[in-house]
Structure formats: structure tokens, C-alpha cells
């Protein structure tokens, strides 16, 4: 059980983004990243609403607060690059290009969903965009990501694979078996650890001995630890690591320090027993969307009205998406035993 | 009864398996073999000896001792265009890879609504009496047979092993291929020319009229020996080999039992909640009105496999115990 200590948000993790002025292309990239982060935020807010109004079966693990990581990393990828994701996977899915209406349909168990309603929140896969699927087994996709990287290398496609996982997965042996092979065989896989500090309701100080970076460094894997709230930092790091992987320089380990603003899942409302309110408030001051907005405005790259416009558009897209899903039909009962075997 | 037109060519089970892999590696560049000591050593059982010479270490790949890792890597590679053959030295180590097989490989096609598939083969071993004791002797094929999304092959002859393995590699699903490690030296006729055997089609290994003995893997050989003895006392036993526990050729089992009116199921997995229970229930269900006696089953004794040969030999069915059980079922004293 967690005896929560407050951890200062800002300090940890190197990597100040370069202060160089942005060109036109950069501005488009930044606005795209802003839009994607907002899309995730709006989507997750709507998921929470669907849950609290009892319209969604089951639970969901919200990504709110961590958006800069999924978007910063996925914006450094091509659409045919692979990702594997986690139980907290909606953000990765959107960042890799999924459409919110089809995602909502999946979350509501509707036939129109990405998996025909058979996967749900924790198993969304979107292979058209290289998303090999969320995974409800903590650390369970490490092998899959490395396997995809193995295929890419063997088939000479130039693709890379990103394995997203929370710091809780550092307790799983599969991850280390996979890191070992990835480094031995120089596989183009990037292990992205989203350290939001809590394995469910327990602070990672209580579950992980030694340093996080030391784990990958022991295999000789190139490791970076960064501020996961600043998308410019994340995106620059991701571009570096993707380039290394594409050049055949092998795997890397990217530790992104972050925070989830909501509970472990939508039903986790009373959290004071494992993490203090003040800590939550401190991290709210480092909201990834605000950080990027402040940069865009501060650098006069765009103005508030543009950002407001993006926000409004995304909001109505999400509302329409949820509406579509709510009205969509459930799968036909005859679907229950199809797709068991290919 | 499959009658291979072998022109008399006789090879071992191990050679048949290696031939199947070599042919598939040659045919399809996306096939690779990965496992502990599979390359130069040719596996702990030397079954793949020489394979690396033709295909090189990029396709016959020595891995670290990381069963979950190589299985998971196989799942991911299978999802993205490769056809992995993952080698798990001892079936006992299935315990280590269960998450990757059961929660990942078996479910990915279904969970993705049919969009993703996992065309991989997991080769592993089963079978006791090698004096290898409790952690290297089990037959855990029932564990995989229990899980929707996985296919399970349990070949009993060199001919079957070769044809079934080739089909398994071409199958778009995760297939677990169980090789009885005591049978690698078993010889049988295997034709020179290429052939495949579909999964889920039983083979009648010996025709008979008085009793059906359904047997899997090495228990087929045990049952054939028992059938010889039964013939000496005038009992004609039919030996039916399902060849796969899933997909299961239920009709073949049921039809044979209908014909003989008596059935005995023999398998080397633990008897408790095991393969024999499933096969017996299929027969009891499908041939109920034709049966003259309850369906009997014989599996491994429900104990950890002991080391001492004196004890170990008691734990698995033998020609003698199968003979005795069949005799009793037929009402002969
Ligand atoms: C192998 C396994 N063990 C336990 C669980 C239950 N569980 C679900 S999420 C979770 C915590 C995961 O923490 P972390 O990996 O840090 O991800 P986060 O939830 O913080 O994003 C646990 C223990 C699981 N799904 N899989």
C-alpha cells in the first residue's frame, strides 16, 4: 500500500528544448501536436462522462495528464511504424491516428468499433495505423513490440516499433528478456516508459529498486530520461531515438516523467490515501496542453483564437463521435464465435 | 489408414521434423526458427542438427534462455509478416510462456475483431520415461487444448509429424506442436515427395472390430503393441489417432466407437481433468446408444513424475496395462 510522498514535478528529467525560433513547418507541427493532445483530452473527458452516466460498460483508464508522451512520440513516427500499448491506451491509439467515433464505438461494445466490439477499452487495435493493440497484461506487449521490430529488420522495411508501458511494467521479467534480445540483435524498438509514479495505488519507490535508467543501461541500451510534460522535449527525444533505430543503431529506453490527473481508472475517486492532493495540484500546474499553448503564444507562433478554434472543432468532433457510438448497433449475437480462428 | 507411398524410404521422427522445417524454410522466406541451442547444437535433442548450415544463423536463431521473451517475440513477428517457429525445449517450460500463448497469441485475432492474426508454431516436447524427473517429463498438451484460439498437434509417426508440421507452419493461427521426446528415434516410412496433412483429421492406425482404442502421440505406439497382444487372444482392436486435440475429429472417434461398441482412451497427460476426459466425453455423447460398456480412460498417474525408473514406469500407460484394460472392457478374464 502506498505511503505517498510528494514528488516535485518539474525538476526530474533533463532535456530543455532548444530555444531556437520556430519556422513555418515547425508551427504546423506544433499546432498538430496541440490538436492531438486536445483530442485525447476531450476524448477522455467524454469517456469519463459516459462512465459516470452509466452509458459505458466496464471501466477505463484515462490518459489525461500524460498526453504529451503519446503525441510527442507518435508524431515522430510514420503511420506504418508500429506501436504496442497498455491498459491506459486511448491516448496512444488516438496519437497513432485512430478516429474517435470508431474508438467510442469500441468502448461501448458496438459493431462499428475497431474490433467489432470484441476488444473494448483495453484491447483496441488499429492495424491500419500500425497500432498492434492495447494490452491488459502489464508489460505483456514487450515481446510483441520487439517481434514487430524483428519483422521490420528481417523484411528490411525500415519500420520501427514503439513499446509504451507504465513504470509498473518494470516489475515484469518479460521486459528484461526482451530488452536483452533487442540489444543483442539491434532491433529497431523504442521502449517508452511512462512514469506516472504510481502502479495502481502504490508509489513506484515501493516497487522498483535501484534506478529506472540503470535497468536498460545494464544491457548497454541507449537511455534518456526526460520531462514528459513538455511535448517539445518528448518529440525531440523521440525523433532522435527513431532516427537511431532506423539507422540500425538498435533499441533505446525513453523514460518520460509524468502524472495521471485522474484516478487509476474512472472509478478511482478517493485517492488521498495513496497520493496527496497537493501533489495532484502541483502537477496540474504542469499541464502538457497548457505548456505547449503558452509556448506557442509566448513565441508569437500563433494566437489564442487559433488554439480556441482547434479546441472547439475537436470538442464537437468528439461529441459527434460519442453520439455516433451511442446510436450505433451492438454486434449481432452470431458474432460471438467468429474470429476465434483465422 | 494413411498409406504413404514412400517407396520404402524409412527415416526417424526427428529427421521427419527436420525435413518439414527445412522444406518450409526453403519455401517461405518469412519462416524462421528460434530457440535455445537450435542452431549449431540443433536443439538439446539434436533434432535440428545441420539446419543452420543451410539456412544460416539469421533464420535458425539461437536465443537467450528466455522462454517468455522468444514466445512474445514470435507473437509480434507473426502479427507483422513473419511465420515464426518457436522452440521450447521441454513442454514443462510451458508454464513460463503461458501468458504469451494464452492471453496474447490465442486472443489477438478475436480481440481485434479478426484484423490481426498470429501465424506461429510453437514446437515443444512431451513424454515421460526418459528418467528426467518431475520438471522435464510432463505432457501438458491439455493446457493448450483448453484455450480457444490455439490449435494443438500431437503426432505419433514420422509420416504424420512431417505432414502435420508443414501444415501447422502454413496455418494462420498459433499452433502448438508436441513432440514426444521418446519418439525422436522412432522410424517410419516417409515419402521423398512433398505432402501435407490437414489439421483435425484423425487417422485409423489399425482397423478392428471389437474395441476402439483412441490414442495420442506415443500412446499410439503403446496401443498398437497392446493391439498385437489383444489379437493373440482373439480381440480385434481398432486404434484411432486423432492427431490433433484441437481441431478434433469427433466424427472419427464416434464412428469407430459405434462400430466396435467399446472405447478406451489413452493419452500421456495427467488423467485428472485431462485430454482423456474430453475425448471420452465426446465418445460417450456421440455413441451412447451403441456402447456396450462405459468409456474407459488411461492417462499419466496423477503424481509428479518420479525419477526412479521403478516408480516412473508405473506412472504411464504401457502395452501391458492397456492390454489388461481393453481385455476387461471386452469382458474377457
Ligand atoms: C500482469 C498483470 N498484473 C497485474 C495487473 C493489474 N493491473 C492493472 S494496471 C496495474 C498498474 C499498472 O501500473 P503502470 O504499469 O505504472 O501503468 P499506469 O496504470 O500507471 O499507467 C495493475 C497492477 C495486470 N493487468 N497485469
The CATH architecture assignment of the largest domain in chain B turns out to be 3-Layer(aba) Sandwich
Our estimate of the beta-strand percent of chain A is 5-15%
Mean pLDDT score of chain A: 94
> What distance separates the N and C termini of chain B?
31 Å
Topology:
The complex is a heterodimer of chains A (342) and B (333).
Chain A: H1 24-52, H2 67-74, E1 82-84, H3 90-95, H4 100-107, H5 142-155, E2 161-166, H6 173-184, E3 189-195, E4 198-199, E5 202-203, H7 212-217, E6 222-227, H8 231-246, E7 252-257, H9 277-284, H10 288-298, H11 304-327
Parallel strand pairs in A: 1-2, 2-3, 3-7, 6-7
Antiparallel strand pairs in A: 4-5
Helix pairs in contact in A: 1-2, 1-10, 1-11, 2-8, 4-11, 5-6
Chain B: E1 10-12, H1 13-27, E2 31-35, H2 51-55, E3 60-62, H3 67-79, E4 83-88, H4 94-111, E5 121-126, H5 141-145, E6 151-153, H6 158-170, E7 175-180, E8 187-189, E9 203-206, E10 211-215, H7 218-232, E11 237-241, E12 244-246, H8 250-260, E13 263-270, H9 275-287, E14 296-300, H10 309-315, H11 319-329
Parallel strand pairs in B: 2-3, 2-4, 4-5, 5-7, 6-7, 10-11, 10-13, 13-14
Antiparallel strand pairs in B: 1-8, 6-12, 9-11
Helix pairs in contact in B: 1-6, 3-4, 7-11, 8-9
The complex binds thiamine diphosphate (TPP).
Thiamine diphosphate binds at residues 61, 87-88, 136-138, 166-169, 196, 198-200, 264 of chain A.
Describe the protein's architecture and organization.
The complex is a heterodimer of chains A (342) and B (333). In chain A, 42% of the residues lie in helices and 9% in strands. Chain A is globular and about 50 Å long. The termini of chain A are far apart. Chain A has one domain (33-324): 3-Layer(aba) Sandwich (Rossmann fold), CATH 3.40.50. Mean pLDDT of chain A is 94; it is low at 1-12. In chain A, the strands form 2 sheets. A 5-stranded parallel beta sheet of chain A has the order 1-2-3-7-6, with helices on both faces. In chain A, strands 4-5 form a two-stranded antiparallel ribbon. Chain A has 342 residues and is α/β, with parallel strands linked by helices. Chain B has 2 domains: 12-189, Rossmann fold (3-Layer(aba) Sandwich), CATH 3.40.50; 203-329, Rossmann fold, CATH 3.40.50.920. By secondary structure, chain B is of the alpha/beta class. The two termini of chain B are 31 Å apart. Chain B is 38% helix and 20% strand. Classes of the chains: A alpha/beta (342), B alpha/beta (333). The A-B interface holds A 82, 84, 113-119, 123, 125, 127, 132-133, 135-137, 140-152, 154-155, 161, 173-174, 177-178, 180-181, 184, 338-342 and B 30, 32, 58, 63-64, 66, 68-82, 84, 99-100, 103-104, 108-119, 148-149, 151, 172-173. The complex binds thiamine diphosphate. Thiamine diphosphate binds next to strand 4 of chain A.
Amino acid at each position: 500500500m502506498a505511503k505517498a510522498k510528494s514528488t516535485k514535478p518539474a525538476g526530474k528529467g533533463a532535456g530543455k528544448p532548444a530555444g531556437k525560433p520556430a519556422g513555418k513547418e515547425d508551427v504546423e507541427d506544433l499546432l498538430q501536436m496541440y490538436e492531438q493532445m486536445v483530442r485525447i483530452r476531450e476524448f477522455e473527458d467524454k469517456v469519463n462522462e459516459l462512465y459516470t452516466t452509466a452509458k459505458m460498460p466496464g471501466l477505463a483508464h484515462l490518459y489525461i495528464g500524460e498526453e504529451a508522451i503519446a503525441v510527442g512520440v507518435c508524431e515522430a513516427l510514420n503511420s506504418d511504424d508500429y506501436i504496442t500499448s497498455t491498459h491506459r491506451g486511448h491516448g496512444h491509439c488516438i496519437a497513432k491516428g485512430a478516429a474517435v467515433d470508431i474508438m467510442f464505438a469500441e468502448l461501448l461494445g458496438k459493431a462499428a468499433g475497431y474490433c467489432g466490439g470484441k476488444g473494448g477499452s483495453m484491447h483496441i487495435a488499429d492495424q491500419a495505423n500500425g497500432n498492434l493493440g492495447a494490452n491488459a497484461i502489464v508489460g505483456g506487449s514487450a515481446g510483441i513490440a520487439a517481434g514487430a521490430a524483428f519483422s521490420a529488420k528481417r523484411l528490411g522495411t525500415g519500420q520501427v516499433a514503439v513499446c509504451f508501458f507504465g513504470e509498473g511494467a518494470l516489475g515484469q521479467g518479460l521486459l528484461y528478456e526482451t530488452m536483452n534480445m533487442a540489444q543483442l540483435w539491434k532491433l529497431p524498438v523504442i521502449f517508452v516508459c511512462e512514469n506516472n509514479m504510481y502502479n495502481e495505488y502504490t508509489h513506484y519507490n515501493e516497487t522498483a529498486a535501484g534506478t529506472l535508467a540503470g535497468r536498460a543501461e545494464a544491457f548497454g541500451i541507449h537511455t534518456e530520461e526526460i520531462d514528459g510534460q513538455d511535448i517539445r522535449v518528448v518529440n525531440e527525444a523521440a525523433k532522435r531515438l527513431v532516427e537511431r533505430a532506423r539507422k540500425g543503431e538498435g533499441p533505446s529506453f525513453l523514460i518520460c516523467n509524468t502524472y495521471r490527473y485522474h484516478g487509476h481508472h474512472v472509478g478511482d475517486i478517493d485517492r488521498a490515501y495513496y497520493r496527496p492532493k497537493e501533489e495532484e495540484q502541483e502537477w496540474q500546474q504542469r499541464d502538457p496542453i497548457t505548456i505547449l499553448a503558452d509556448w506557442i503564444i509566448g513565441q508569437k507562433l500563433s494566437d489564442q483564437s487559433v488554439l480556441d478554434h482547434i479546441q472547439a472543432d475537436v470538442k464537437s468532433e468528439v461529441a459527434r463521435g460519442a453520439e455516433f457510438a451511442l446510436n450505433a448497433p451492438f454486434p449481432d449475437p452470431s458474432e460471438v464465435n467468429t474470429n476465434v480462428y483465422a | 489408414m494413411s498409406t504413404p507411398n514412400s517407396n520404402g524410404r524409412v527415416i526417424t521422427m526427428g529427421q521427419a521434423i527436420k525435413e518439414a522445417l527445412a522444406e518450409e524454410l526453403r519455401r517461405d522466406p518469412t519462416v524462421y526458427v528460434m530457440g535455445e541451442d537450435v542452431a549449431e547444437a540443433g536443439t538439446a535433442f539434436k533434432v535440428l542438427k545441420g539446419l543452420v548450415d543451410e539456412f544460416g544463423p539469421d533464420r535458425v536463431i539461437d536465443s537467450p534462455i528466455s522462454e517468455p521473451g522468444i514466445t512474445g517475440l514470435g507473437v509480434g513477428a507473426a502479427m507483422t509478416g513473419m511465420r515464426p517457429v518457436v522452440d521450447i525445449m521441454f513442454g514443462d517450460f510451458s508454464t513460463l510462456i503461458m501468458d504469451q500463448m494464452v492471453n496474447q497469441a490465442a486472443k489477438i485475432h478475436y480481440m481485434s475483431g479478426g484484423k490481426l492474426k498470429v501465424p506461429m508454431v510453437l514446437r515443444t516436447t512431451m513424454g515421460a520415461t526418459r528418467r528426467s524427473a518431475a520438471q522435464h517429463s510432463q505432457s501438458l498438451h491439455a493446457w493448450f487444448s483448453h484455450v480457444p484460439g490455439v490449435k494443438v498437434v500431437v503426432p505419433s509417426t514420422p509420416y504424420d509429424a512431417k505432414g502435420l508440421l508443414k501444415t501447422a507452419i502454413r496455418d494462420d493461427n498459433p499452433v502448438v506442436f508436441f513432440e514426444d521426446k521418446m519418439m525422436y528415434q522412432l522410424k517410419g516410412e516417409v515419402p521423398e515427395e512433398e505432402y501435407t496433412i490437414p489439421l483435425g483429421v484423425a487417422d485409423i492406425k489399425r482397423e478392428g472390430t471389437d474395441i476402439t482404442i483412441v490414442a495420442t502421440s506415443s500412446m499410439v505406439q503403446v496401443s498398437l503393441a497392446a493391439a498385437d497382444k489383444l489379437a493373440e487372444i482373439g480381440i480385434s482392436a481398432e486404434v484411432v489417432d486423432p492427431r490433433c486435440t484441437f481441431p478434433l475429429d469427433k466424427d472419427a472417434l464416434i464412428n469407430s466407437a459405434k462400430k466396435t461398441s467399446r472405447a478406451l482412451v489413452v493419452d500421456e497427460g495427467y488423467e485428472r481433468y485431462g485430454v482423456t476426459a474430453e475425448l471420452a466425453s465426446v465418445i460417450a455423447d456421440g455413441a451412447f446408444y451403441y456402447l456396450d460398456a462405459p468409456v474407459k480412460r488411461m492417462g499419466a498417474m496423477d503424481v509428479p513424475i518420479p525419477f526412479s525408473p521403478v516408480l516412473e514406469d508405473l506412472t504411464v500407460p504401457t502395452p501391458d496395462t492397456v492390454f489388461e484394460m481393453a481385455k476387461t472392457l471386452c469382458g474377457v478374464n
